[in-house]
Amino acid sequence: MKYLDQYKEIHEKSIHYGGGNALSVQAHFIQKMIEETESKTLLDFGCGKADYENNKIHNRWFHNILPERYDFAIPKWSKMPKGTFDGVFSVDVMEHIPEEEVDDVLKTHFEKANKFVFLGISTQLANQILPNGENAHCTVEDQDWWTSKIVKANIKKIYTHLHCYGDHNDYRVLYAENM
């Protein structure tokens, strides 16, 4: 990944960066998708410093399902878990992916999902600046742009929710008929 070292440095220097605040705002959407699809396994794609065991947030939000975790910038979670999962979710992740890598990262989301994908994507610049001086949100696009990328990557037509927030606020449900 183009900015991997930049994100690793931020995570190492700031105990609060990647701590799950964005997930707490989006969790009720994911919770609803778990219920609708009767999901039993989850992958938190771009988990940051998610501390499910100590905070018991999986009990409160995810029906006692402890999500597997993956985050390219966190050494502890930098290896992609094997297999597929009923649900895959990413919150405040995709806007950190360079535009030229978005298609591949979305493709991986859908390859890992059996029942649903939830994407919470910010559509505004971040407050965080990378060590190189660039904004941490390197791909800031509107909901139509993201929808076209998702439709292209979602070749299995997995049930998908897209929540864009920031400069463009929108909630879209894609492929609900396949649920």
Question: What would you note in describing this structure?
Answer:
- The protein is α/β, with parallel strands linked by helices.
- The chain has a single domain, classed as Rossmann fold (3-Layer(aba) Sandwich).
- The protein is built from 6 helices and 6 strands.
- It has helices spanning 4-13, 21-37, 52-55, 57-61, 99-112, 143-153, and strands spanning 42-45, 68-70, 85-91, 113-122, 159-165, 170-174.
- It has a 6-stranded mixed sheet with strand order 2-1-3-4-5-6, sandwiched between helices.
- It starts with a helix and ends in a 5-residue tail after the last strand.
Based on CA inertia axes, which overall geometry fits?
A: globular
Named CATH topology? Rossmann fold
Show unreliable segments: none
> What is the total number of structural domains?
1
Helix content, binned percent:
25-40%
CATH class equals: Alpha Beta
Strand line-up of the largest beta sheet = 2-1-3-4-5-6
Let me know the largest β-sheet: 6 strands, mixed
Q: Give the overall average pLDDT.
A: 88
Task: State the gist of this model.
The protein has 179 residues and is of the alpha/beta class.
Topology readout:
Blueprint: H1 4-13, H2 21-37, E1 42-45, H3 52-55, H4 57-61, E2 68-70, E3 85-91, H5 99-112, E4 113-122, H6 143-153, E5 159-165, E6 170-174
Parallel strand pairs: 1-2, 1-3, 3-4, 4-5
Antiparallel strand pairs: 5-6
Index terms:
34% helix; six-stranded mixed beta sheet; alpha/beta; Rossmann fold; 179 residues
